[in-house]
Design a protein that fits this description.
Elements lengths: L14 E4 L3 H10 L7 E5 L37 H7 L3 H7 L6 H14 L3 E3 L1 E9 L4 E9 L5 E9 L1 E4 L3 E3 L6 H5 L5 E3 L3 H9 L4 E4 L3 H12 L8 E4 L20 H8 L3 H10 L1 H4 L4 H13 L9 E4 L2 E9 L3 E8 L5 E6 L1 E4 L3 E3 L33 H4 L4 E4 L4 H4 L9 H13 L26 H8 L2
Helix pairs in contact: 1-14, 7-11
Amino acid sequence: MNHPALHTPQAPRDLVGIGIGPFNLSLAALAHPLTGLDTVFYEQRPRFHWHPGLLIDGSRLQVPFLADLVTLADPASRWTFLNYLRTRDRLFPFYFAERFHIQRAEYDAYCRWVSENLPAVRCGHHVDAVRWNPELRLFEVDFTQLDADGEAEAVGRAHTRNVVLGIGTAPHVPAPLKPLADAPGVPVVHAADYLGHRDTLLAAGHITVVGSGQSGAEVFLDLLRHRRAGTERLHWIGRTEAFAPMEYSKLGLEHFTPDYMRYFHALAEPVRDRLVTGQWQLHKGVDTDTLAAIHDELYRRTLDGGWPDAVLTPGVRVRTAGRVAGSRIELHLEHLQQGTRTRHTTDAVVLATGYRERPVAPLLTGLDPYLRRDGRERLRVDEQFRLDLDPAITETGCHVYVQNAERHTHGVGAPDLGLAAWRSATILNSVTGTRAYPLPARTAFTTFGLERRRPQIPPSRQVEALMP
């Protein structure tokens, strides 16, 4: 095994990013033009891919294209989505398409373009450990460089003043279905792998989709469109009380502003926990266009007088699951409102059961003595997205930042793409100790809480006030 040159303590990095999803990619893009800032970002995959199993034809982002990696912090950046279109000679087609919400596949391609052109991004690098070196007063980041087959090729170590964790989320499989999902050859797949198994799923006699959010709706619609009228043999179930639309009113969307995130962070821990549970429709509902498309497709299949062989039942949870009759799957269901139970037999299951934050504890074992936790043993995160560490570290000016691992402290906006650029700019301002990216003091018309806000004078009036 080769041993590449280490980034020595004599020349430590300013920032090491771990993981390259949209959030750390946003950070890398905004860090790129900051002269004098030495950064590197490690990603174990050979190249960027964003939810490849769910890039269904026609599926769109639920945020506008302005929620790209950089625009809401630096609209003049070379890494904007519009500049990506310009480099592809696609600005005029995009202009005439009049699409505020772009396709997921296009967003995936845009992010890959950014990642492949940023010199600080290192794909094929698996980070093994992060620890604090008290003698050097620096973090040590150990990594393994992987070859094209994903095998270890070399090892290395970087020393850095700051670490940013952006390791993302992982598909969540409910406990009752985990044994079937883990069993080889059983047609129980998570929606994250849907496209890779679509042909097998479509060949099944009866298909059940579990999960009533956006992914469940998109998978159900795609299966419906590929099944013959009258013999669809589809069943869609979910725990929510209805196949509900996502909150998309203009004032409702202000829950995804920095103003609300600051308000949420200042609340007491029990209040935050209660709010996150109750705000599911802000981020787990279904886009209204997708719901309309499902209804349109079902309605079209009634034109000859019959009804499609499709069952849509909300308010249902899967209690247990197993195999019956050799190859079939049996789900034991409970209706949460009726309190009734039944058995449901199917040939294949798609689990649109969402994602959970990847645990950072295994990566931060070496920092465990320095970490501060809340009442439920979760990592405490301050307003600037820094982990609450022992002063023995923070007094040196070194910090560990997190991206999309702070929903318990920052609320529903933590995983939202629309806040990516603002959070990245906040982190970079903290790392540099400067206003590298000036950020707005106010971002919402709603005043969250009873704290009185001073009226702000528009810049033009400020100039007038200074004139004699």
